[in-house]
Amino acid sequence: MKGTATPTVPAELAGTGFDEAVELLSGARIAVLTGAGVSTDSGIPDYRGEGAPRRTPMTLQTFLGSERARQRYWAGSHLGWRSFGQLQPNGGHFALARLESAGLATGIVTQNVDGLHRRAGSRRVVELHGGMDRVVCLRCGQLFARQAVAARLEQLNPAIDLDQAVRQNPDGDVDVDDVDGMRLPECTVCGGMLKPDVVFFGEFVPVETFTTASGIVSAADALLVAGSSLVVNSGIRLVEVARRRRMPIVVVNRGATKGDARAAVKIDAGTTETLTALADALGA
Asked: What is the pTM of this model?
């Protein structure tokens, strides 16, 4: 029966509230909200985790208002995609996919743009901030596969050294300063400006996307938050949806989050080992 398994719990989870979390989540329909901490074990650094470098991401206003900024962004994004697109899901992603397959999860809402939940096999995934594996035309709305745009960028800019060492950032970008002569991709349908299909700083999550995400939470009996500090407004709003519905909230994250005071259980531990142990304990 689901929820009756008694697997060996990793020693690092002893005394963390893990047993209380299993009790709360057993027999419940679980909505899942994830952040960057779920993907750190796949090689993607966290924006706000301990030791994360201070950086200023590209804003939508800057991207739209400066060709030089777009050159810098596309140069870094193109170089970063070479490694970013090759990263693989980790045990935490697969554990969440198991919860969904077992009928225990109503879906996953993620703040991540890496697409790793989909690649791990999760089917109902709402990407609050979009996906780096897609590119959109800002004029006509045409969507393109990122690989196709990457191939065009290579043709337009053969001098870009794709083998140089780069520092990966959480959004798939890298730091590049030399962008002289960088040729920008254009929409092959209308010639419009292209942008990765992600929510930049300064943009709002589309209303329909948030409505779908809110629906996943509202259809559940409990909310599991994993790997998010909940600093971004879209995440804490979903926690509020759960709180107003008097749903138990379980937070798994290394370090404090803005949702800790709302959580019935807070597990201060890594997401990979915790989510794997939770899936095992719940019989997924």
From this structure: 0.86
